[in-house]
Amino acid sequence: MSAMPKKIDHEERKETILRTALDVFAREGYHNSNLSLIAEDSGVSRPTVYQYFHNKDEIYYYAVKLVTGRLFAKYSAIAWGPDGGDEIERMSTILADIIDTAVANEKGLMNLMDVMVSAKRDGVDFADVIHRRTAKLSILFKRIIRQGITAGRLRSVDIDATADAIINLAELQCFQVAFFKAFDKKAALAMVRSYLEGLRV
Q: Helix, strand, or coil here: 92?
């Protein structure tokens, strides 16, 4: 009796290729990387890589989509769940989780940042992709802020500008995790909390 063929978990394989690709991008530079190198390092054939990704850009887009999609689902639950506390507590929880996630995935974050820098040198700008993928998070913060203002718990502020400032604060922390060895998580959380507390009435 012959053994049944092993069922391939396509999402798992796609994520393995993705992680390997980010390592290759960081090691070789975005310009010098190609799907053959990624296939070799992943331990799969080049046609297998092509099954999942047609080019390097697609791999990067998928990395950003995967990370932001998972995080947004989690943050929506925090924002509108029954036990999240007031608006400041909910936003603090979301920002603390962004920082925790960045710290826990420091190597992957460094690779993503390295890819962005390397690609920018080659004339490829991923800023628009990042902006589109974080737009949902910005909308989420705007809704929380608007709710807090309507309820009289938050000061009347420019909602768009405040949400942008919060997103910029989160991006700054992620940047520091990726590039600074001496990242002080406790100080970062205190700064975030201080900014948010300033929104209270």
A: helix
